[in-house]
Design goal:
The chain has 3 helices and 25 strands. Helix 2 runs parallel beside helix 3. The chain has 355 residues and is of the alpha+beta class. The strands form 11 sheets. The chain has a 4-stranded antiparallel sheet, with no helix packed on it. The protein is rod-shaped. It has helices at residues 14-33, 64-94, 105-113, and strands at 3-4, 10-11, 48-50, 60-62, 132-135, 138-142, 147-149, 152-153, 166-167, 172-173, 188-189, 192-193, 205-207, 210-214, 218-222, 233-235, 251-252, 255-256, 265-272, 277-283, 288-296, 304-309, 326-327, 333-339, 346-354. The N and C termini lie far apart (210 Å).
Length: 355
């Protein structure tokens, strides 16, 4: 150890120098033996520097270089975020959603969540009026389809247009009620076939079901049920309705009687066209005695063309005819054949007389 002399000056003796040397060496040894552990999150220690910007180590310290790299990346990200916010705001505004870059991302995200990203092709006419919808070209659109509700259509003689719009399923086309027996067979109404028989297709002379007479007034025929097209006649058998059974000159439904009361007489006027002929059976209607055929070009007052006589005993004479215009005589009739060789109409008259 150094000592101070009477002059106040420290003097170091050789022994002291040795002692000091030993202390220094001991200090060096003590320092060399000191152990400093690595730094942790809970204890101080030796820290290793690192310039990595992607390390996850918790035992290294970042260098200024690493800090600068991270700062540069953070600034770039911030700028990108600003640009992306501007893009998001522009997109929201373009579809009608009010937005501003002054809003936080949390506010913008909430607005984006409320946007429906539609891809459909529906138009306003396809959507019920008052309802909103979105399609590939926009959001918040309003439909224009009319709401017709429950429409009832009554069938008529002409086609009816179904109105454009929404129908709620409660509408209907009214049913058609009709009597099938009043609709002609072969026709269909509302999917139901008719049952009325087509009588005109069966027979142009349709027999009636029954008939009756109001004497002196009219004759009735009850037709069968069915359709008649106007060309069909409803008939009833009337075998006794002949001209010979009607008094001469009496007209019954267009049939003129020839019956002569008292003396039996028959007359029929016939016209023969130029170069034409007649060929018919004549029913006289009673047992005749004399039949005459009188012909003339101009009128019916000419001479006898032919005749037949019946003898009192009833036999027929065949030798007393002239030219054969009257042939095939029977007790109540005769056949007439007459040929006109002139170019004008010839009038002929057949007369018959009874006993």
């Amino acid at each position: 150890m150094a000592k101070t002399d009477w002059t106040g000056t420290d003097t170091v003796k050789p022994a002291d120098m040795n002692e000091i040397g030993q202390e220094i060496n001991q200090l060096r040894e003590d320092v060399d033996n000191i152990h400093i552990p690595p730094a942790t999150l809970t204890e101080a220690g030796i820290v290793q520097l690192s310039s990595a910007t992607d390390s996850t180590s918790e035992a290294m310290a970042a260098t200024p270089k690493a800090v600068k790299a991270a700062m540069d990346e953070a600034l770039a990200s911030k700028q990108l975020g600003v640009e992306q916010k501007a893009n998001v705001v522009a997109a929201l505004n373009s579809i009608g959603v009010a937005a501003s870059t002054n809003e936080t991302w949390a506010q913008l995200i909430a607005k984006m969540a409320g946007v429906i990203r539609a891809t459909g092709n529906a138009t306003a006419a396809d959507v019920l009026a008052g309802k909103t919808f979105s399609n590939g070209s926009g959001n918040g659109l309003t439909g224009s389809m009319p709401n017709k509700g429950a429409v009832v259509i009554t069938p008529g003689p002409a086609d009816q247009t179904i109105p454009t719009g929404y129908h709620n399923g409660a509408g209907k086309v009214a049913g058609v009620q009709f009597n099938q027996n009043a609709l002609l067979v072969g026709n269909t109404v509302a999917g139901t076939p008719g049952r009325m028989p087509n009588r005109s297709a069966e027979n142009n002379h349709m027999p009636g079901l029954e008939s009756t007479v109001w004497p002196g007034d009219r004759f009735f025929i009850r037709p069968p049920n069915g359709h008649f097209n106007g060309s069909t006649w409803v008939t009833a058998a009337v075998p006794g309705l002949t001209a010979a059974n009607l008094r001469a000159g009496v007209n019954v439904a267009g049939l003129v009687g020839t019956l002569q009361e008292g003396k039996k007489f028959y007359r029929q006027d016939i016209s023969v066209p130029p170069y034409g002929n007649v060929d018919l059976d004549i029913n006289i209607g009673f047992n005749w005695s004399v039949v005459l055929l009188i012909a003339n070009v101009e009128d019916r007052d000419g001479g006898i063309s032919s005749f037949y006589l019946r003898h009192p005993e009833g036999s027929l004479s065949t030798g007393m005819s002239y030219n054969g215009n009257l042939t095939t005589p029977t007790l109540t009739g005769i056949h007439l054949y007459y040929s006109n060789g002139n170019n004008t109409t010839k009038g002929i008259t057949v007369y018959a007389y009874g006993r």
